[in-house]
Amino acid sequence: MRNAKIRAVQYGCGKMSKVILNYLVDHGVEIVGAIDKNPAVVGQDIGDFADFGYKTGIIISDKADQVFDNCDADIAIVTIFSYMPEMYEFYETAIKHGVNVISTCEEAIYPWTTSPSETNRLDKLAKENHVTIMGSGMQDIYWINMPCLAMAGMNKIKKVRGVVSYNVEDYGLALAEAHGVGYDSERFERDIASAESLPSYMWNAAEAICSKMNWTIQSISQKSVPYTLDEDVYSETLGRTIPAGQVTGMSAVTKVQTHQGIDLEVECIGKVYRQDDGDMCDWEITGEPALIFSVNKPDTVALTCGTIVNRIPTVLDAPAGYITSEKARLITYPSYPLHTYIEK
């Protein structure tokens, strides 16, 4: 057990980082740096930025190298974009300074086949610098490890079906654009539906499930369909009204066939919510016996942030390299300060 507090840098100061920063404080983590390029937040004390009610002396900076040079951080919490190619430089900066990384980047949960170049380079770089990089968030527990644990009680499995939904308004502009929000149908078809290089977030989760269950993938495919409404809807993230007929989000269905004869069909729905909409996390396992379970209207933002923070000790205990969360030690709720859960 470690006696010294975990020292963390928040890399990316957007909507979700405010929740993460508060959760870090709740669990006894020392925040030693904060980085962002947005002029609206650069220069702010994180106490003001995250509404702590007091100043901390930690100022949000746009000079990442300087922040890492001036603090002895254990880990960087990187919350910027959704796909590995656009995240590479941020991960590289932290790793070259000998700092472990945990990230909300959705593709980072299992990027070995969707971004093999970036992932293998980061794996090599992390090993050279004796640190670990891992993706985590809502999908870590509720899209991957929880379904796998539930299947452990079954005699036979034929098919795994999962449907998840979230409000793109909760995650900022980068995620909204990745879902085609505000696009017309022609642009959605060109930039989203036909862009084979952009896996849905459940694509990576499905691959992680197969990894956890030791299933080998025979084939995998995806189809993305736009969501539109017959009425105008206002998007706070875009800062404008989306006219009726324009895209408010999308559904992406990923289908997997395994050599073990077990099929997976997972659907990821991200859209601008109306008043009565709510998040989904529904699972149906066909087999002996059949199994249906769900998390009713989960608070995806809070659960993502909670998982990120509570996952930190297992990142610090993991071997050097790119370690995906299904390979890490089981995450647990920290009843005591977070550093006391570090085993090495």
TrEMBL record:
Coiled coil: none annotated. Residues 152-324 form the 2,4-diaminopentanoate dehydrogenase C-terminal domain. Residues 11-103 form the Dihydrodipicolinate reductase N-terminal domain. One of its GO terms (biological process) is lysine biosynthetic process via diaminopimelate. The keyword Cell inner membrane does not apply. Signal peptide: none annotated. Keywords: NADP, Oxidoreductase. Gene3D superfamilies: NAD(P)-binding Rossmann-like Domain (3.40.50.720). One of its GO terms (molecular function) is 4-hydroxy-tetrahydrodipicolinate reductase. It comes from the Bacteria. Transmembrane segments: none annotated. This is Dihydrodipicolinate reductase. It comes from Streptococcus troglodytae.
